C-alpha cells in the first residue's frame, strides 16, 4: 500500500522535536478505521484545510497506522470488539504523537452495520472513547471502500467481494445497497459463496448427484484430506467463513484449466455480482434516463482482484458495461482505512460548508 | 407414537414383582437409540426369539423409553454428547427394571456419522458404558429411520428431510448415500435449505434483485421483525439450523396461497430430494436392469410429512415413481429409536445365523 509513503514528512521521528510532543500546538487530526472480517486497521491523518476535494494530496499523508484483530461485534462479541477498537486507536495515535483530544473526527467503516441500531451501538462505544467535541461517524465498510477509490466523495457504486459481498451506491442524498446478508442469506457472489458451491460440487460428484470435477483433487489436496467424506467433518470443525472463502484460488485455477463445473460456479458469481450492482444502479438511477450516464464503480476485495487466471473482476465489469456503457471502473490504490479518514474529512467539510456538498 | 402401547405387558409395574428386580433371571434386552438434531431417544426392548423377521410383533414391545437433549458431537461437543447418552440409557434401563449387564445389544442411530472415524469414536464411548459381552452398533440416523419402516430389514432406500436431508440405500451387502453434508455442503432439499432460500428471497426482493414475495410479510410476522434489514442480525444472533428450518411451514403456506417464489423453492427442494434418491438407486441398481424392479422408499422427517397444503413428500414420491415405477412408499408408524432396536435385533440374528441374512 502507499499509505506509509508520506509518513516521514508528517511523522514524529526522534530527529524532529515538536512542541507539546505533537505536531505543534493546535494540530488537529482525523482517524480512519477499517473494521474488516479478519483485522481492524486505524490510520491517523492530519486535518487538511477544507478546499475542493480534487485538491487533496493523493495519496493523503498518513502519520500513524495500527493493525489489530477483528472488531465485528457480530463475529467476536461486543466486549472483544470494543477492546480491539480501543487498542488500535491508541496505537495509531501514539505512533502519530497525537492524543484523543486533538482528534477532530473519527470515521469507522465496519462490516456488520446493517441496521441503524448497529450504527447507534457502535457510536455509543466510540463516544465513550473520545471527548465530546470529537465528531464520530460509523459506516458500513463498503462505504469506506468506496471513499478509498473516490478520495472520499460519495457518488457512484462500490462492489466488494471478499469473504462476503455487498454493493453500495450513492447519488445526491440517496443511498442503496444490495446483498451483504452473509452466507445464510445467499451472498453467492462472495468468496464464501464461490467456495461453498465448489465444496458442494465435490460432495455431489462423490455421491453421484453430479459429474466429476477437478475440484475434488485440488480441494482435498489443499485441505490435506483424503476423501470427500472428510469434508463434512472439516466444515463442521470450524464454521469460519474466511476459512471456506480461502478456497477461491482453487476454484479459479480449476476453471482456468478447463473444468466446466468450476467455470460455471465463477460465471454464476459474476451474474450474482452484476445483479447486485444493477439493483443499486437502478434504484438510484445512476445511469440516467437513457442508461448511458457516467458513474464510477469502485471494486474491492480478494475475489475481484486482477489475476492472470480466471478474472472475476474483469468479467463483472464487462458484464456491467454491457448494461451501462457509462460505468467506469476504479480499483482503489489506497486502503479502506484511508478511505474512512477521507470520509471523515468529507463529512466535516460538508458540515462546515452546509449541506450542499457530498 | 405406538411405542408405549405394549409397555404394561412387559413392564416392571409395582404389582408384578420379578426375581432379581428385573424380568426374571436371564432376561435379556436390546437398546435402540435415536440421536437426532434436537433430542436423543432411547428405548428398551426385550430380546425377542430369533425367527423370520416377518413374525416380529408390530409394533414391537417397548419396556422403557427416555428422552434427553442433542447427542450429536458435531453440534454439542464430545463431553456433552457423552453425558446425554449416559443419561438417556440409564433412564430407559431404569424404567425397564433392567441393568447394563442384562443388555445383549445396543444400536445407536445418530446424525453426524459420516466417516468410519465418527463411528469408531462413538463406539469407544459406548464400550466404556457397557460390559464387554454387550454387542454395540453405531449407524447414521438415516439407517435407523429406514429400519423403523422395514421392521429392521435393510433393503431399499430411505429419504430423510427434517432440519437436514440425506438419502441412504441398501441392496444385498452394498450401501450408498447421497447428501447429508449440512448447510455449507448444499443440502438444498432440507428444511434448512428451503427456509434459507426463503430468507434469501426476502432479502433479494427488499434490495431489488428479485420480485416481491408474500414470504416477506409472512416470515417477518413469524419472527416478530419489522423490516427485512433485521433478518441479517436475526441470522447472526443464533446460527442454529433448526431455528432456520422452523420457517418451512411459512414457505408451504405462501406456496399454497399462490406465491410463485415460494412455489419455486419447494419445486427446487423436490428436485433436489429426487436427485438424492436417484443417485442412491442408480449406484445400488435397486430398480433392476429394466428400471421397473420393486423396492421400498422409506420417507421420514418434518419436510416430508403429509400435510394438507403443498405436500413435498407426495411430490417427491410422484417424481420418483415416474423414474422408477416399482418404488413403493413407506411412511414408518414407529419412531427411529425403535428402528434402531430392531436393527440391533437384526444384526444380532445375522451374526448368530451367519452372513446369509441381512
Automatic annotation (TrEMBL), chains A, B:
- One Pfam annotation, family name? BcrAD_BadFG
CDD domains hit by this protein: ASKHA_NBD_DdNAGK-like
UniProt-recorded Gene Ontology molecular function terms: N-acetylglucosamine kinase activity
UniProt xrefs under SUPFAM superfamilies: Actin-like ATPase domain
Its domain of life reads Eukaryota
Domain ATPase BadF/BadG/BcrA/BcrD type as annotated: residue spans = 31-344
Q: Where is the sequence biased in composition, kind Basic and acidic residues?
A: 1-21
- For this protein, the Enzyme Commission number is 2.7.1.59
Where is region (Disordered) located? 1-27
Q: Which family does it belong to?
A: Belongs to the eukaryotic-type N-acetylglucosamine kinase family.
Q: What is this protein called?
A: N-acetyl-D-glucosamine kinase
